[in-house]
Amino acid sequence: MQAKQSNPNEQRSLVLIKPDAIQRGLAGEIISRLERRGLKIVAMKMLQMDKTLAQRHYAIHKDKAFFNELVNFITSSPIIALVFQGKDAVEIIRQTMGETDPAKALPGTIRGDFGLDIEHNLIHGSDSVENASKEINLFFSAEEIFDYHKDIDRWAG
Ligand code: IDP
Ligand code: MG
To answer: Is 124 a catalytic residue?
Structure first.
């Protein structure tokens, strides 16, 4: 269940800091970039995904050739899961991440600056408001998502 959100453009999106980002010490850098875009962290936890959760999260890719590889990779080390909230959060996060393939991602994006290859691309971000809601429910209970105001939001009116 989503808590009340005052702005109609206010969205929530699921972000995963993937195993390669944790292994390379880039978690803080990635979270910081999203925070500095004005998005608010409303939930965060470290966890090791098991195969069942990975298969559910990536169910849309179950017929792809890379599916098993992807499940093995995402379960290979702990990850950090977050929910970010803000105006147009889904699109803003996708833009800040960059293209799936780091070779095609623009410099200045997370994947364009740090990504190694199409599998080891550091970050997951929901691709639509509808999928965001489903993905958030896979990782977080309603009690784990916080509804609070930042003073800067008041200053911005
Ligand atoms: P996205 O993460 O940019 O939304 P998707 O197409 O949804 O990209 O793919 C999900 C994840 O699957 C990618 O982030 C990447 O880790 C992995 N992936 C996508 N395409 C390939 C591939 O061709 N080989 C290996 N892994 C892939
Ligand atoms: Mg995707």
So the answer is: yes
Q: How far apart are CA 41 and CA 133, in angstroms?
A: 15
State how far the Cα of 10 lies from the Cα of 16, in Å rounded to an integer.
20
Could you give the domains of the chain? Answer: 12-48+76-140 (3.30.70.141)
- Measured between alpha carbons, how far is 43 from 48 in angstroms, rounded to an integer? 16
Closest CA to 149 of 40, 51, 63: 40
Whether this model's pTM surpasses 0.70 = yes
Convert the pLDDT of each residue in 28-81 to its tens digit. Answer: 999 999 999 999 999 999 999 999 999 999 999 999 999 999 999 999 999 999
Closest ligand relative to 97 C-alpha: 1
